[in-house]
Design goal:
Blueprint (H helix, E strand, L loop, with lengths): L1 E7 L2 E8 L3 E5 L6 E2 L10 E7 L7 E7 L6 E3 L2 E3 L1 E3 L5 E4 L2 E7 L9 E5 L6 E5 L17
Parallel strand pairs: 3-4
Antiparallel strand pairs: 1-2, 1-11, 3-5, 5-6, 6-9, 7-8, 7-10, 10-11, 12-13
Length: 143
Amino acid sequence: MAVLIQQQEGRAGIRVRLDKPVFTIGRDPGCDLSLDDELVSKHHATIEAVEDPGHPGRFQYYVQDQASTNHTYVNGERVTLYRLSQDDVIAIGLSSFRFVDDAHDDLEETTRIQRTWIPGLYVARRKAKKKKAKKKRTRSRRS
């Protein structure tokens, strides 16, 4: 599966897993990704996962604008239907998302947004990589 990683001032933000064959994005609370932004239409765009005919079990992802008022952009270009590639940037309203196919990227390097004890305040924390413990090998000697 793939994910969208929200881009905020050049840093990675919230990740959203594309866990459905058709993933909806819009202002409507019923969308899979609901954006509270006046520039976003109720049903702004969809991302569809289509099985790659040349590689069973792998998917190709397509973003499609749903006749939105303010359009959908990929890498700065207005699109109606676009096949997504690794690291494409999708802009919807004031939000930008980097497309990552987790078969091609290390998601442990992304940042997660966490809630603080102060209401309405969130902080970005980089996930630490898990280090593999090195096992010391000992040789047993027979006398």
